[in-house]
TrEMBL record:
Organism this protein belongs to: Devosia soli
UniProt GO MF annotations: metal ion binding; metallopeptidase activity
Record bears the keyword Zinc-finger: no
Keywords: Hydrolase, Metal-binding, Metalloprotease, Protease, Zinc
Region of interest (Disordered), ranges: 1-27
Alphabetical list of Pfam families matching this protein: RadC
Entries under SUPFAM superfamilies matching the protein: JAB1/MPN domain, RuvA domain 2-like
Name assigned to this protein: MPN domain-containing protein
Keyword Protease: yes
Family: Belongs to the UPF0758 family.
Record-linked PANTHER family: DNA REPAIR PROTEIN RADC, UPF0758 PROTEIN YEES-RELATED
GO biological process: proteolysis
Signal peptide, first to last residue: none
Xref: PROSITE patterns: MPN (PS50249), UPF0758 (PS01302)
Length: 242
């Protein structure tokens, strides 16, 4: 190097052409998002933007599309376990953790839609949306209970049991014990079917009727038992099974 020559400065101005290209692409995507909103975006585009936050200086569109192919849907990507996401090519454990954080934020946002100051039965679609976001893509069964007061306002929302891929042990007397502890006047039962099909099984119906019978004796109302699946939901009350 000649004595008068100086090393090139490192920094934004000396970024590689690829880095400049990614930055320009991300800026254009963000501006489009701000202009037209997320409803105008394809799922892979929204996921690509989420990955912007976790993976700098890299084209995340191919990764977004690969994740959707692997897991089958936008919601399923976020609901996948951290362990499984971390093993996916192109995702580090920290990037996978960021996806799980976003899932938790979405679930919390949905839960706030269930206003404790108004009757939960008047927010039925918000309840279904919340339960789907929280449970539809879980790999094992969860059994949760919504405890309500005399005006059908939410007292508590608790996951009572976590089971296997196709079974959750539920003990009606334990359900009633917790109901009495909270001084609840009514209940809504909710559980998921990891298979995706929300159709109630014979065991689901028996368990629900057992809880309904004990609740009736104690003056407690069982409004419904909702089963959440990837393809939708089923209400045992609407199906006239309770």
């Amino acid at each position: 190097m000649p004595p008068s020559a100086k090393p090139a400065k490192q920094g934004k101005d000396t970024a590689t052409p690829a880095a400049h290209d990614h930055k320009g692409h991300r800026d254009r995507v963000r501006q489009r998002f701000l202009k037209v909103g997320g409803d105008a975006f394809e799922y892979y585009e929204l996921l690509e933007m989420v990955l912007f936050l976790a993976i700098p200086f890299k084209d995340t569109k191919p990764l977004a599309k690969a994740l959707l192919r692997e897991f089958g849907s936008f919601s399923a990507v976020f609901s996948a376990s951290h362990a499984r996401l971390s093993k996916f090519p192109g995702l580090s454990p920290s990037s996978a953790a960021n996806l799980k954080v976003i899932q938790s934020v979405a679930a919390r946002f949905g839960r706030e839609g269930i206003d404790k100051q108004k009757p939960i039965l008047s927010s039925w679609q918000e309840l279904i949306d919340y339960c789907r976001s929280a449970m539809a893509f879980e790999n094992v069964e969860q059994f949760r209970i919504l405890f309500l007061d005399k005006k059908n306002r939410l007292i508590a929302d608790e996951v009572q049991q976590v089971g296997t891929v196709d079974h959750t042990p539920v003990y009606p007397r334990e359900v009633m014990r917790r109901t009495l502890e909270l001084s609840a006047s009514a209940l809504i039962l909710v559980h998921n079917h990891p298979s995706g099909d929300p159709s109630p099984s014979a065991a689901d119906v028996r368990m629900t009727r057992d809880i309904a019978d004990i609740a009736r004796q104690l003056g407690i109302t069982l409004h419904d038992h909702i089963i959440i699946g990837r393809s939708g939901h089923a209400s045992l009350r609407a199906l006239k099974l309770i």
